[in-house]
Amino acid sequence: MRIDIITCVPKLLESPFSHSILQRAQNKGLAEVVVHNLRDYTVNKHKHVDDYAFGGGAGMVLMIDPIDRCIKHLRESRTYEEVIYMSPDGELFNQSIANELSLKGNLIILCGHYKGVDERVREHLVTREISIGDYVLSGGELGAAVVADAVIRLIPGVLSDETSALTDSFQDGLVAPPVYTRPADYQGMKVPDILLSGNEKLIEKWRFEQAVERTRKRRPGLLLD
Ligand code: SAH
User: Fold this and answer.
1) Statement to judge: residues 127 and 86 lie in one domain
2) Do 136 and 194 sit in the same domain of this protein?
3) pLDDT at res. 106
4) Which of 54, 147, 223, 224 has the smallest number of Cβ neighbours within 10 A?
5) CATH number assigned to the domain comprising residue 220
6) Is 12 touching ligand 1 by the criterion CB < 6 Å?
7) For ligand 1, what atom is nearest to the CA of residue 130?
8) Which of 136, 138, 146 to mutate to test the pocket of ligand 1 (most atoms within 8 A of CB)?
């Protein structure tokens, strides 16, 4: 899968994909993330990507022209299943959307900035709008990184333990049970005995019960779905 991210501040996305699991996924050839600078697609002398809002009011608006040019350029080389615009009023991102996107081919993610993008971009150029939560960020870059991270780690082979993503929160409609590592006793704070018992069946049962209990306490809505 290839994810192309369009932004007017590419530096904001330099680090998230260059370390740990996401970097490994790219090194293994399982995913490719390419960041595009909107300024490279401008034709005006000063490489402006934004302009004042018609009708007045505070805040600049990203212009349709460089965005359209960039998307057209990308489409010349390959097909994309979705052109996603990161937007606070978009579909609320969750694990099931991450699962769905991880099964797709290539994706474009467009990051807004300032006041957002010209509405005609949303009407005509994007296929989907995603929000990472009901709050407003300065730009779509961090949101795009969140979406790309959640999607890429689900691609088979990305996580070293194949089953690992399946035991994460939300995957089975439950949040994850607690986990512990050495030492078994840290200054009197002990790991539950059952986890040291070596009895796999009982451990699995305990984990399931813990997951259900946690879900009931923290995300009761999941149990109703
Ligand atoms: N004026 C807009 C907010 C613009 S914030 C409004 O009130 O709705 C600037 C950019 O940040 C947006 O274009 C969007 O791409 C991104 N952004 C802000 N909050 C976001 C969120 N919760 N989820 C996804 N993207 C977000």
Assistant:
1) yes
2) no
3) 98
4) 224
5) 1.10.1270.20
6) no
7) 24
8) 136
- Residue 136, ligand 1, Cβ within 6 A: yes
Shared domain check, 176 and 142: no
pTM of the predicted model over 0.90: yes
- Please list the pLDDT of the chain residue by residue as tens digits (225 residues): 999 999 999 999 999 999 999 999 999 999 999 999 999 999 999 999 999 999 999 999 999 999 999 999 999 999 999 999 999 999 999 999 999 999 999 999 999 999 999 999 999 999 999 999 999 999 999 999 999 999 999 999 999 876 688 888 998 899 999 999 999 999 999 999 999 999 999 999 999 999 999 999 999 999 987
In angstroms, rounded to a whole number, what is the distance separating the alpha carbons of residues 102 and 220? 26
Q: Is 126 exposed, middle or buried (0-12, 13-18, 19+ CB in 10 A)?
A: buried
Distance 88 CA to ligand 1 centre (A): 5
Regarding whether 178 and 68 lie in a shared domain, the answer is no
Cβ within 8 Å of residue 213, ≥6 positions away: none
- The whole domain housing 26 covers 2-152
61 lines ligand 1 (CB under 6 A): no
Beta-carbon contacts of 98 under 8 Å, excluding residues fewer than 6 positions away, are 147, 150, 151, 154
**Domain boundary, last residue among 152, 179, 202:** 152
Say if ligand 1 is within 6 A of residue 7 CB.
Answer: no
Nearest CA to ligand 1 atom 18: 137
Q: Are residues 109 and 46 in the same domain?
A: yes
Residue 113 φ/ψ, nearest 5 degrees: -155, 170
Of ligand 1's listed atoms, the one at least distance from the Cα of 116 is 13
* 115, 181: one domain: no
